[in-house]
Amino acid sequence: MMKMILTGNESAAWGARLSRPKVIAAYPITPQTSIIETIAAFIANGEMDARYIRVESEHSAMAACIAAQNTGVRTFTATSAHGLALMHEVLIWASGARLPIVMSVVNRAMAPPWSVWTDQLDTMAERDSGWIQLYTQNNQEVLDSIIMSYKIAEKHNILLPSMVIEDAFILSHTAEAVDIPDQRKVDDFLGEYEPAFKLDPEDPAGFGSLIMPEGPYMEFRYKMALAMEDAKKEIRKVVDEYNETFGRDYQPFIEEYRTEDADAVLLVLGTIGSTAKDVVDRMREKGKKVGVARVRYFRPFPTEDIRALAKKVDMIGVADRSYSFGPGADLFAETRSVLYKHTDIPVKNYVMGLGGRDITPAILEKVFDDMLSVAKEGVADKEIEWVGLHGDERWST
Amino acid sequence: MRKLTIPEEEHMLPGHTACLGCGATIAMRYVLKALGKNTVLSIPACCWAVIPGVYPHRALNVPLLYTAFEVTGAAISGIREALDALGKEDVNVVGFAGDGGTADIGLQALSAAMERGHNVFYIMYDNEAYMNTGIQRSGSTPPGAWTTTTPGGKKRMYKWEPKKSVAEIMVAHNIPYVATATIAYPEDMIAKLRRAKEIKGPKFIQIFSPCPTGWRHPPDKTVEVSRLAVQTNAFPLYEVVNGKYRITVKPKNPKPIKEYLKLQGRFRHLTEEEIARIQEYVNENWKALLKKERCSQED
Fold first, then answer.
1. Residue A50: its chain B contacts at CB < 8 A?
2. Considering only CA atoms, which of B136, B79, B142 is closest in space to residue B105?
3. Who contacts A354 (Cβ-Cβ below 8 Å, separation ≥6)?
4. pLDDT tens across B34-55, in order?
5. Which of A326, B14, B133, B286 has minimal CB crowding within 10 Å?
6. Is residue A102 a contact partner of residue A142, using CB atoms and an 8 Å limit?
């Protein structure tokens, strides 16, 4: 076992290195850049054997990964915010082409105004792109998730690309001790990449050709929907196997913390989870029965786990670090949707931390207090609460 | 017995869905004859995304990756690097894209791929407008042309700007091989493809491909229009090997541009004065090309 002090981005680069992709296509964007810089250094020093294509845009990064993966090799790339938005067209291409590409995404706010700090709108805007989406909470999880994502994505009953998501700066540029798994153990765990199909002059085939409305377009989409559902089973299996092989204790879909006897539980994505757990401990000392449930996978959406959680508690608060201008932010809207007719408990949306605004323990304590009063009343005073706006006395700390 | 000048092998199958007299279809057939079976094709949105046929039919007997409109440069880079990583350096990687996908929306990815120096072919089949979407102006549409987005009208809103020369843009990338070709000169085209095949690095070939549907000429005039484009100097045939220009077909007595224009409905509206201006434009381009040939051949 080898421990190193790594930032989230270095952890992502290590996750890629250990997974041995043969082609990397890379384009810089803050705060992702140090992922592709670290990988460049690995290759330059002979520590990683991969072709490195320094493309001229994120759109081309994904297009090159699509073409390389379709030729029969494992690929990797990384991006953030505007880069991810620029990729949008080809993200949908990658999933429709059933190519198990793995990509690191560092959550960053979308301009205007320019902001390089953390915000989850970039990945939320791609929730319908057909990618598996996993939100991480610490650097170890970043590294481990990349390895696991290859294993899950490459299963021939899945074949969906996968995003491993980390919060800007809070993870990307913050260093902590990370255990580096043994390369031989990772090789055994992942195995050689076995493409389900490939471009091959010995066996000429066409990929992505024209199709008429009576052709199987709809069936292709349905098969993707089935694969996304099947991914739930594979995620459980792969997480179990990884935990056993590498001595970890990941929960597949939702990491629950002190939820068993909780009156109110806050659903979160990403690094809000670690702050919230700390606040829960403090509040428990005061006799306030609150808990945290950190959602790891947003795609596939953990419907069953959220329904099971709702059975245990009187109220669910949902923290979103983005807003979607619909019926609340994304995690909230989808949570409430899957709970329809499964529970009568109130569900309330707390929109916070946009553009990297700090989510402090003091703010979360106020959120938990508000949740407890909603739990007591049995009904939310309002469905969507923007927390910490300038000039709003209610949330000032 | 005389030796065949065009390879006998066929990698295009019967049953394609192109319009009658499609020049781009003839171009593909020759390209595959010249490069052979050991070839991977990448085709973006363009006429050729439709010509192979509707799933599951495919009139091409080589592996084919269909892609988004603007990504051909990136796609052939990805295929090349993956093949090399798999030890398949001998496979030809060919991007085959229209003029819209090359001169306009795909120029960025093309430029980057050429600059990075991948061992690939990029073939621009130039039918001088967005033909698959129904004849809209591209940067490669020649001056004077009618298209559905330069429809003339009371204000004579035709395409008056010069044709963007992607071949010259490619020369500026200092890549080892750039050439123009057209279907009326198949031996010339095949010789260029074979020369390019011997070169490791990025190769760019612009194939002038008349489009009867969009150019408004009878389908049986495709080869004639192609030949006249060369004989009038509207589309000169040349190659640039490591920066050295060589004009491969030099018309002894160039024909007046009018002979080329009058065959095509897209130029029907032109006045004598406008035709004279186009003649001047063609003459200037030809003179500039002769100069480039002379200067680049000097030591």
1. 85
2. B136
3. A109, A119, A121, A321, A322, A323
4. 999 999 999 999 999 999 999 9
5. B14
6. no
Q: For residue B66, what are the β-bridge partners?
A: B43
Helices in B68-178 by DSSP H: which ranges?
72-85, 99, 107-116, 166-171
Using DSSP bridges, classify how beta strands A290-295 and A254-257 pair: parallel, antiparallel or unpaired: antiparallel
Classified by CATH at the fold level, domain A2-246 comes out as Rossmann fold (3.40.50)
In CATH, what number does A254-395 get? 3.40.50.920
Give span(s): CATH 3.40.50.970, chain A.
2-246
Report how far residue B181's alpha carbon sits from residue B221's, in angstroms, rounded to the nearest whole number: 18
**Count of CB atoms situated within 10 Å of the CB of B224:** 15
As annotated, the residues of chain A forming the CATH 3.40.50.920 domain(s) are: 254-395
Q: Please report which confidence band the pLDDT of residue B3 belongs to, taking 50, 70 and 90 as the band edges.
A: confident
Tell me the per-residue pLDDT of B174-211, one tens digit each, with 9 for 90 and over.
Answer: 999 999 999 999 999 999 999 999 999 999 999 999 99
pLDDT tens per residue across span A128-147 = 999 999 999 999 999 999 99
A56-82 per-position pLDDT tens digit: 999 999 999 999 999 999 999 999 999
Q: Does A203 touch chain B (CB under 8 A)?
A: yes
| Amino acid at position A69, single letter | Q
Is B42 at the interface with chain A, CB within 8 A? yes
**If we measure between CA atoms, which residue out of B211, B138, B216, B204 comes closest to residue B169?**
B204
CB of A51 within 8 Å of any CB in chain B? yes
B224 Cβ under 8 Å from any chain A Cβ: no
Neighbours of A7 (CB within 10 A): 23
* Low-confidence stretches of chain A (pLDDT beneath 50): none
- Beta strands of chain B (E only): which ranges? 39-43, 64-66, 92-98, 121-126, 177-182, 203-208, 237-241, 244-249
pLDDT-derived band at B1 (thresholds 50, 70, 90) equals low
Say how many C-beta atoms besides its own lie within 10 A of residue A297's C-beta. Answer: 20
Tens digits of per-residue pLDDT, B237-293? 999 999 999 999 999 999 999 999 999 999 999 999 999 999 999 999 999 999 999
**Cβ separation of B74 and A201 shorter than 8 Å?**
no
Return d(Cα A386, Cα A388) in angstroms, integer.
Answer: 7
Domain segments of chain B: what residues? Answer: 23-297
With an 8 Å Cβ cutoff, are B85 and A22 in contact? Answer: yes
Contacts 24+ apart (CB under 8 A), B151-156: B152/B269, B156/B269
| CATH match for B23-297 among 3.20.20.100, 3.40.47.10, 3.40.50.970, 3.40.50.1820 | 3.40.50.970
Q: Is A70 on the interface with B (CB under 8 A)?
A: yes
DSSP letter for B264, please.
-
State the Cα–Cα distance between residues A99 and A91, nearest whole angstrom: 10
How many CB contacts within 8 angstroms connect chain A with chain B? 151
Please report, for residues A51, A92, A109, A212, the alpha-carbon distance to residue A84 in angstroms, rounded to integers and kept in the order given.
22, 12, 11, 30
Type of residue at A388 = G
Substitution target in B61, B65, B72, B93 with the highest count of A β-carbons within 10 Å is B65
Residue of A nearest to B40 (CA): A201
pTM higher than the cut 0.90: yes
